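Posted in: Structural Biology > Protein-Ligand Complexes

Title: Requesting predicted complex, flavin-adenine dinucleotide in pocket

I'd be grateful if someone could produce the 3D structure tokens for the following input. Sequence and ligand are given below.
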Amino acid sequence: MSAEKKVSLAEKRRQKKVDCDKLCPEWGCAQPYEYEGVWVVGEVDEQGITEPSLQMLTPARRIADKLETFVEGILLGSDREQLEKAAKEMIYHGADRVRILVSEELATYIPGVYGEAIARLAEARKPEVIFLAATMRGREIAPYVAGLLKAGITADCTQFEVDEETGDLLMIRPPFAAILLAYIKTPFRRPQIATARPNIFPLPPRDESREGEIVWENPEDYKLSKPPISLVKVEMLKRSEVPIEKAEYIVSGGRGVGTKEGFKTLEELAEILGGVVAGSRKAVDLGLIPHERQVGQTGKSVRPKLYIAVGISGAAQHVIGIREAGLVVAINKDPDAPIFKNADYGIVADWREALPILIEELRKLKERSGKTG
Ligand SMILES: Cc1cc2nc3c(=O)[nH]c(=O)nc-3n(C[C@H](O)[C@H](O)[C@H](O)COP(=O)(O)OP(=O)(O)OC[C@H]3O[C@@H](n4cnc5c(N)ncnc54)[C@H](O)[C@@H]3O)c2cc1C
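-- Reply #1 --
Done. Output follows.
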């Protein structure tokens, strides 16, 4: 039996030393052991803390437990009451502590100012890892933070692990073709910054009995730049439909659907199912559907119970967005279309023939059962 003492990951992290002579001198040099904790940047909108940022507490908790460290939420804004509520939600979902920075400069969301605030907080508090949800905001803010901290950033990760030898975060993501997985790490710089798209990680269970600390940061300690732009007007987009990332039933159309008229048939089917319409990038490029309804690598990841792909070929960049979908049904006139490899049921047909039959049968079924879905 080996008498070798088992060194914990936490110890390995503390022992890790970076050779500063090998680094770019203008960037300065800090040792990894000076950094501690996993941060999740929380996003708050009119409805409170957003689900994608709460989802990021799932990998944060896992990685923090592995590294034997803590999870902190970071909240920015100007409305104390709203931020306090959001902080409690972060604690109920797994954060140990939430730091809140309240400032008039943060009353309006401006990516450069928000990025600067997070970077200033990180310079002072030195987190080891920063996670952001890859929402529109997260995608905007993360590069500002990374640029100001001269740290790396790995966007759109699908998994996180810890390097057992060094304690470095392994940020795992599919490269362009989505067939391989790239393992990316930032061995010499801290914090290690990464984003993951909404719905890649599940929402952690909410436990109101969880306790945590709320720290109100002193805004005097973090002098922020005056926003270079001012907000003139806010116009809310009409949000009558459920966002695709939350939908249980999705009817998705591709270039094969061809026209806006064609998409009306998809809407008809979606309505019967109590679902929503989405589309491929080609459908977005053709102006058949707005970008916020695009599924895939440069769109959104969805996790409906049922995903019906109509006239979609099934390119790797599209199917990566439906990996978490329950049942996938594909309708395509080409029997060799790759989408069939990713579908549970395939209908080889022209959608113009298949969809009206499907709609009629579902209507009959609905009439008989007297309920939706
Ligand atoms: C970096 C990068 C990122 C990308 N990100 C995304 C992304 O996020 N989401 C995404 O979707 N794509 C993305 N793409 C594009 C992707 O590679 C494909 O080009 C795109 O998904 C194809 O869209 P499509 O299936 O609608 O069109 P096509 O590939 O043209 O397929 C149309 C399909 O419709 C079928 N069809 C035609 N007429 C009918 C009919 N009457 N009835 C039934 N079937 C019919 C055809 O047989 C064909 O299979 C990305 C590409 C790159 C390079």
